[in-house]
């Protein structure tokens, strides 16, 4: 055995880039200072976040074990790694893979790290990153060193910074792209990493690249900033259309076009200018309003464009603007082997089905790209090592992660496909069905995320297994559908742009809380995530498989020729869909169906806030429940009106829904509360917002901000000139405010006084 | 150099076909009743992963799992945090914790008669590449810790088969000559 003392710092000192090594040393020093109590937890939290070290569920030192709230007695009870975050609590390390690119050596190192520090699993995220869960913060410097030694930095993987720069995984091998966007994604990543102009943001900033306008590609529409490649007609000069201000999150915003036909040499200075304007003018205090989408909406795209144009003029020229692009454009991928076509013959069982769904013919003759379908994005260390070997055996290490939590091997020689398939079989990754309804993406949800409301991974596991089993017999139109599952409204799975999206919510039923998923329909994956769906119905988690079955059955039976699911939903209307699901939405009694009261893969009786269960069984319907029912109904009607393009009707109903939701909050303390909109909002503000009571139980200020903003817009008649975009957002915000009220009611203990309205 | 982060996996003799999700409520109950050593945190499920960590009971010092790595199911105690104890104590701790978990699982009413561990077949490995990589991977030091302890505990000769794959952690497959049950060993470490 090696003779100590040795450290990874010593072992790897000559293998890490000097500046990266220095940064990690500084981070390690901050860990030491934090342990000595010399750094405020709040400051240390942002420090570690900017290095990708995230918190995880139960890091506040308590967990409901199904019977009681159990205190987790971490070894150093006085030591914190953030506000209300215990030092020794398990955390997550997010590892950036710009544009998803990954070498064999990097895969091997991830395998080692997963085995030694995590729970043996490396998890691919919906932004081409990899995450390791259940790690200790003290292990993070060594994790970072081992990554740095193979060219990976975790810098700015989290925190208020430029996050991973994503790109279409088939860029460069795509049949419909204008040109390969990879060099440009590389250049922006390198340029913006640690850039001084990107260190003072109020929130995170995500950039994406697409090679095509009409495919899903890089999903530019939902990004803070995005680039779509184009060729100028006649001259074939490569240029970009630049978009800004898109984003999902609870309320999605469509990106607006900032510049058309931007010369490729201009993308770095323009990105720098956007960063400077966002850093200067973006919201800093109210976290829920701090993404750039709010700034763009506030200024309007014309004024925002003017600001960027002015900012661009005063930038000090930087030689990197051109040199980085020139450097990366020269780096082109090369195949490992000579192109050969697949010979006919007998193939292993399952090969043809797999080839049909998982293999994409590249424009380069004789080469294909292969999607390795990774259930829930989870890979073991052994799987990663075999995949790393395959990356050297079949291709020149040209592997990328995808936003659908899979891996893509590019430049596979067609003739090698049977052997490639065989190698995948040995590690259980030869499943067909990539890019089909069974290939479902999911955020971590209640498994590890602090914000998780419902078990998105548990649900995904169940429905993907069920749909995979049905895949061969399934009709082609259903096979093509996309399902995405988030554990809360924050849309980490990108549920707004799927055919069927789900996000976790909860509903109170007597003294119990029931896990639900809100069904979101009408989203569009193509056209860079071209349009966003809207919530239709909240259904208990355990009934989601039946929900999907009913929806797909109806689609198969009633669709018109060539009608997409999105068009089908639009045609039949949300009311009919809601009627189809009405019985599933009804919560049964606990005695009749106890399984409804726990979540997928988790036998504990469900709770969102560690409240005990069964305390007041037999309670009559509380008045607040009537108010919430009215709010639900108005919110849904607003969506129907929006579908019918009745802007005024949708706005009015959305506002009414918010007032009913607010009334529900007031009725938790004063059962007889009644009042007009003005009084209701004022009372809410006085008793629930100004006192911190509401925010305390929903852990977020933005929901109440939605109410105040809506009330102000309606009373001032600012809504009179609103169009479809603003109305869409208003309907979303009404829905989210109602969900927040559900959370408030589930979380807040009954409180005797004060009694608003009395 | 102290041998740290020693891991012990006790293979199954019977119960390979029990659906992995059976262990989820059982591990939750172990947490509720605080039946295992260490600070128990949560349950993690990887039933969808081929030959993976299966179902884990996440704990602060080390995880317990019904592990399926390399296609062989067993109870793994996976030390994550280094301790200041000596190699023998670290080995004993990991073995004791693994045995206790095996005993509890064998006694679970819903698994009664369906699940049996074979502590004569083990995998012991060090979760620490820093100290076990390069030319000397620590096989002799690990053997020096394992052999006397296991021979004393089992009263039997043992065979240690090193895993030479350089990508893998330093590990021995252990075969105890005598046939043993969990009950033979529990309480001895």
Short description, anyone?
By secondary structure, chain A is an alpha+beta fold.
Termini of chain A, distance in Å? Answer: 76 Å
Q: What sequence of helices (H) and strands (E) makes up the elements of chain B?
A: EHEEEEHEHEEH
**What would the principal axes of the Cα set say about the shape of chain B?**
globular
| Global mean pLDDT of chain B | 93
CATH topology of the domain at 173-330 in chain A: Sulfite Reductase Hemoprotein, domain 1
How can the largest sheet of chain A be summarized? Answer: 5 strands, antiparallel
**Amount of helix of chain B:** 25-40%
Query: What gyration radius of chain B follows from the Cα positions, in whole Å?
Result: 16 Å
Structural class of chain A: alpha+beta
Give the key terms.
A: 758 residues, Alpha-Beta Plaits, Sulfite Reductase Hemoprotein, domain 1, 5-stranded antiparallel β-sheet, 25 helices, 16% strand, B: alpha+beta, 8-stranded antiparallel β-sheet, globular
How do the strands and helices of this protein lay out in sequence?
The complex is a heterodimer of chains A (758) and B (189).
Chain A: H1 8-11, H2 18-35, H3 41-49, E1 53-54, E2 62-64, E3 69-71, E4 80-82, E5 85-86, E6 91-95, E7 101-102, H4 104-117, E8 121-124, E9 130-135, H5 140-148, E10 166-167, H6 182-192, E11 207-210, E12 225-231, E13 238-244, E14 256-263, H7 267-281, H8 292-299, H9 301-314, H10 320-330, H11 351-358, E15 359-361, E16 367-372, E17 378-380, H12 381-393, E18 399-401, E19 407-413, H13 417-426, E20 441-442, H14 456-470, H15 476-479, E21 483-486, E22 500-509, E23 512-521, H16 526-529, E24 534-540, H17 544-558, H18 565-572, H19 574-585, E25 598-599, E26 602-605, H20 623-643, H21 647-667, H22 677-689, H23 693-698, H24 702-715, H25 724-747
Parallel strand pairs in A: 10-11, 11-12, 20-21, 21-22
Antiparallel strand pairs in A: 1-6, 2-3, 4-5, 6-9, 7-18, 8-9, 8-17, 12-13, 13-14, 15-16, 16-19, 18-19, 22-23, 23-24, 25-26
Chain B: E1 6-14, H1 23-32, E2 40-45, E3 55-59, E4 62-67, E5 74-79, H2 87-107, E6 116-126, H3 139-154, E7 158-162, E8 171-176, H4 182-185
Antiparallel strand pairs in B: 1-5, 1-6, 2-3, 3-4, 4-5, 6-8, 7-8
Helix pairs in contact in B: 2-3
